[in-house]
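Our working data are protein records whose layout never changes between entries. Getting from the letters to the tokens is the skill we practise here. To make this concrete, we reproduce a full record directly below:
***
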Amino acid sequence: MTTDPVPTVREVVAALDGRYPRAWAEQWDRVGLVLGEFDAPVRRVLCVVDCVPETVEQAVDARADLIVAHHPLLLRGVSSVAPDTYKGRAVHRLIKADVALYVAHTNADVANPGVSDALAARLDLSALRPLVPAEGAAAGAGRGIGRVGELAEPVTLARFADLAARRLPATAAGVRAAGDPERLIRTVAVCGGAGDGFLGAATAAGVDAYLCADLRHHPASEHLAAGGPALLDVAHWASERPWLDELAAWLRADLGVDTLVSDLDTDPWTVHAVSRTQKEPRT
């Protein structure tokens, strides 16, 4: 009886770097291996959007050898990882538990398939193309920020918002939409994560609606006043969580490692109360 060899951290990192080259990341980003012994074996991987105390403990409890996270733990410079700091506690906990940490962020955003492809698939969009084609090292092969696609048949904005709420992971924030509820939606642009920097690109793409996260009041208001496409604002975590399934499936198929996907909702907003009209009685 023979068993497949167990890959090392070095081998898993090499595979991840091949799928999501670090050169594709934005200059300000911090991607790749954050911590871990290169020669340590990797039998189980936990895929997460955020490396936070809850997902760190989830990895330890699951006996994972590696966390692959979308958002960097150490995005901005630090002068200390002392255990009395938020990031320091996470670093110490991971090292003591022999859990390595790898990050694929903006390099996974522009990849094909990448974060926005998984988001588009949840919404049944087809004929995908980049919202903003990649330039430089990542240029070509359908890579870029966001995706533009088509629904099989037109639906109203209200129905499309309901579809998004049902297909995306549930959060307290849910889905907000801006525009005429009866507007027919056929072509849609999506962007995993914060997306109001690409409102102009969505308008230029001629889509009927644009779905992303973290839309701000003034950019959204001015976009709509200028006749731009309808807007759908979803929770940041919910827009990027679908990518974890694709990532985990690839890790299993390519490296033969056991992979888990974290469904812990790490969106910071935990309560949503619908506003009452003045005429409604208070209880």
Q: What stands out?
A: Residues 9-105 form a domain with the Udp-n-acetylmuramoylalanyl-d-glutamate--2,6- Diaminopimelate Ligase; Chain: A, domain 1 fold (CATH 3.40.1390.30). Residues 236-255 form the longest helix (20 residues). The chain has two domains: 9-105, 111-238. The radius of gyration is 20 Å.
